[in-house]
Design goal:
mainly alpha, 14 helices, globular
């Protein structure tokens, strides 16, 4: 019996043979490399690239505004735990917000009227006594040891640097810098006012914002989404409040140690310690170097006293103070804290280093509450197909 006769008797076999023939003919055709309308496709791609560049330029132009918005939201989340604590005592939320706002503004006024003038006086004192300190440093053993180790005359190098700074070109550059600094001060004042107003607005409407955000997800997911939002905001708020508390304790310890060793700029160093130690783990180690170098200008033994005393406090802070202040607000492994702080500092400076830790904690909350349960629910392997 011939093949044609077999196909006539078996229609199914004929259909399979015809399908195989079509697939073989289709696979033998050359595939299209270029799009059907290359001019139109290239034009659409070019428009997409231009739109992406335009959005990037808009983002850069609005970076200061976006930074103010982000900072205001960050501060509002940090003040929210205090508002909630007052609410637990029976106070209504509007009055709790008003109380917290008045306390924060009062602290800001105290800082401006009391700390800032003293800080300026100590800074002026540094400039006035710098020649005397330098002359005293030249007579110390550690200064001479550094000269011997480097094999250079530090006095000549410093004198040459001072001469270059006081030259005409440097004066013009500094003058331009002063004008830019004046503009920066005006911009900083306006940004500060904007941040204060936005912070008050965010803390007053935080619950409303979370409810409005929950309406953007499907109804059957809103409960889980609201729980995650509450956990994330509580984590960020706990980190901000705990970080400020730890930095204040750190600044108080630095102030006491600097006063004990007889430093004339103890308040200035304490304020510097407050801002530097806002970055967890890394900030304390950075200020250990800064404070020790500053104490060297008082004397080598004084520097050793500060070094030992501050090292002892760092250990107490790590094993006793931080667990009690932070609690479970930000349960982030140490290595992720370091990586997040370094990445945030490289992208956004000090603010980025501060924000990176609660962002990392928020991502971990989402992974633990959403991703891991979803993976645990997959108990049956998908069928191979």
């Amino acid at each position: 019996m011939s093949n044609s006769e077999e196909r006539e008797q078996d229609p199914a076999a004929a259909a399979v043979a015809e399908s195989d023939a079509q697939r073989s003919s289709t696979s033998s055709r050359p595939r299209r490399v270029l799009p059907a309308a290359p001019l139109r496709s290239g034009f659409l791609v070019a428009i997409g690239v231009l739109l992406a560049i335009a959005l990037a330029l808009v983002f850069v132009s609005l970076s200061s505004v976006l930074m103010s918005l982000f900072l205001a939201l960050f501060i509002a989340l940090g003040l929210d735990p205090a508002v909630r604590q007052l609410q637990r005592t029976g106070m209504k939320r509007p009055w709790a917000i008003t109380t917290v706002a008045v306390v924060v503004l009062a602290l800001a006024v105290v800082i401006v009227l009391v700390l800032v003038p003293n800080m300026v006086k100590q800074f002026v004192h540094i400039i006035e006594t710098a020649p005397e300190w330098y002359a005293h440093a030249q007579t110390t053993d550690w200064f001479q040891d550094i000269e011997a180790a480097l094999g250079v005359d530090l006095d000549a190098v410093i004198a040459q640097g001072v001469a270059s700074v006081t030259s005409l070109s440097s004066f013009l550059a500094i003058s331009g810098g002063v004008l830019k600094a004046a503009g920066g001060i005006v911009s900083g004042i306006s940004s500060t006012v904007l941040v204060v107003v936005l912070t008050l607005y965010f803390i007053a409407s935080l619950e409303t914002m979370k409810r409005a955000l929950a309406t953007l997800v499907p109804q059957y997911r809103r409960r889980t989404f609201s729980d995650l939002t509450d956990q994330i905001t509580a984590s960020v708020g706990g980190f901000v409040a705990g970080g400020v508390t730890l930095s204040a304790i750190n600044a108080a310890v630095v102030l006491v140690l600097q006063l004990v060793i007889g430093s004339n700029i103890a308040l200035l160093l304490a304020i510097g310690a407050f801002f530097i130690t806002l970055v967890p783990m890394i900030g304390s180690m950075i200020f250990l170097v800064v404070g020790t170098v500053a104490a060297l200008f008082v004397g080598p033994w004084q520097a050793l006293i500060f070094l030992v005393g501050y090292l002892v406090y760092i250990q107490i802070e790590a094993y006793y103070v931080t667990p009690r202040v932070m609690g479970k607000a930000v349960a982030v492994p140490g290595i992720l804290v370091i990586i997040g702080a370094m990445t945030g500092a490289a992208l956004m400076g000090l603010l980025g280093a501060l924000v990176a830790i609660p962002i990392t904690a928020s991502v971990l909350i989402i992974i633990r509450q959403v991703t891991i349960p979803a993976q645990d629910a997959k108990t049956i392997a998908p069928e191979a197909g």
